[in-house]
Amino acid sequence: GYAVGGVYTSMTGFRLQNTMGAGKMQMVLTAALLQKMGYLWWDLGMVMKYKEELGARVVSRDIFIQRLRAGRDQRIEFGHASIGGRELLDHFTRVRNHTVMADLQRQQDRRGKEE
């Protein structure tokens, strides 16, 4: 893959057809590492069922360009200490849980204003 500022774009993943792989785990750990390093978002490329199963969302071209412009000038530090998969998953889970709770609170606040 490659990075432009705070946006990481995947290029390709590969495994032989009809073989088992660790692709989903690799994607989860990559997401955790990118988040920990400060990336704003991850462009996963073309829509595929397994990506959607992991939470990927399709956005319109206009939104994609807005996000790219917003993230392209962010500086990311590439140097970091060695980190294990368990620590990455724990970090990612904490951040994800916090984000979900914040989203729920915003939805409740909007509903309260509409009433």
Low-confidence stretches: none
Distance between the first and last residues' Cα: 46 Å
Shape: globular
Structural class: mainly alpha
Largest sheet: 3 strands, mixed
Q: What spatial order of strands do you see in the largest sheet?
A: 1-2-3
Number of strands: 3
Mean pLDDT: 80
State the main characteristics.
53% helix; three-stranded mixed beta sheet; 115 residues; mainly alpha
Task: Describe the overall structure.
This protein has a 3-stranded mixed beta sheet, sandwiched between helices. Helix 1 links the parallel strand 2 and strand 3. By secondary structure, the protein is mainly α. It is globular. Helix 1 crosses helix 4. The protein contains 4 helices and 3 strands.
List the helices and strands and how they pair.
Layout: E1 2-4, E2 7-9, H1 23-37, E3 41-43, H2 49-53, H3 61-71, H4 85-114
Parallel strand pairs: 2-3
Antiparallel strand pairs: 1-2
Helix pairs in contact: 1-4
Concise account of the structure shown:
The chain is mainly alpha-helical and 115 residues long. The chain has helices spanning 23-37, 49-53, 61-71, 85-114; strands at residues 2-4, 7-9, 41-43.
